[in-house]
TrEMBL record:
UniProt cross-references to SUPFAM superfamilies, sorted A to Z: Flavoproteins
Domain Flavodoxin-like fold, first and last residues per copy: 3-187
Family assignment from sequence similarity: Belongs to the NAD(P)H dehydrogenase (quinone) family.
Organism: Roseibium denhamense
Superkingdom field: Bacteria
Name of the protein in its database record: NADPH-quinone reductase (Modulator of drug activity B)
Keywords: Oxidoreductase
Source lineage: Bacteria, Pseudomonadati, Pseudomonadota, Alphaproteobacteria, Hyphomicrobiales
């Protein structure tokens, strides 16, 4: 059994990302895994870090405390989000800015160029919905958000990224095409972190 935290990073209450997160969750539970789900749309917090140094970080709101407790609890983080302007939605990025802090998610060590990964021992995967075709994302855009998410957020803190799954194109897709994407998300949920 794997303890999984599914974070739906879409800021709207209803979205295809939410459907992907739900399909993954349902399948993981069916296969005997313990799953907690958090919706960025339901979290109430100031997404603006708003200060110039980590030591001046503002206190967490209760929803950030709850997210952190779930992050510490999990073995595997599943992040779903849409591709907006080549990146993740602002509220999701704000959650990362506010919670993934030194002393909690990573720690700078004097004399070493890279910090200690304080969330090591955990894995992660990312499910992204997009109107951009996968080949265009990779070959024309250079997969920038994938590199950022893997190397500068998840792996940086020790949440070793196992999979990055692209679901596109959403705009103009038929119900049958969307169902195939949802079935793919369910298959991923059946075998988390593999």
């Amino acid at each position: 059994m794997v303890k999984i935290l599914v974070l739906n990073g879409h800021p709207a209450k209803k979205s295809f990302c939410g459907a992907l997160a739900q399909g993954y969750t349902d399948s993981a539970r069916t296969h005997g895994h313990e799953v907690r789900v958090q919706q960025v749309s339901a979290l109430r917090f100031d997404s603006d870090f708003g200060v110039s140094s980590f030591r001046d970080a503002k206190p967490w709101e209760p929803d950030l405390e709850a997210f952190w407790q779930n992050l510490e609890w999990c073995d595997h983080l599943v992040l779903t989000h849409p591709l907006w302007w080549g990146g993740m939605p602002a509220k999701l990025k704000g959650l990362i800015d506010r919670v993934f802090l030194p002393g909690l998610a990573f720690q700078y060590v004097k004399g070493k160029p890279l910090p200690e990964k304080l969330l090591k021992g955990r894995t992660s995967e990312v499910l992204v919905s997009s109107d951009t075709p996968g080949w265009f994302f990779r070959w024309v855009y250079g997969a920038g958000i994938k590199k950022q998410t893997k190397m500068q957020i998840l792996d940086f803190c020790g949440l070793k990224m196992k999979r990055y799954s692209w679901f596109s194109t959403i705009r103009g897709s038929s119900e049958a095409e969307r169902e195939k994407m949802l079935e793919r998300a369910r298959k991923l949920g059946a075998k988390p972190s593999s």
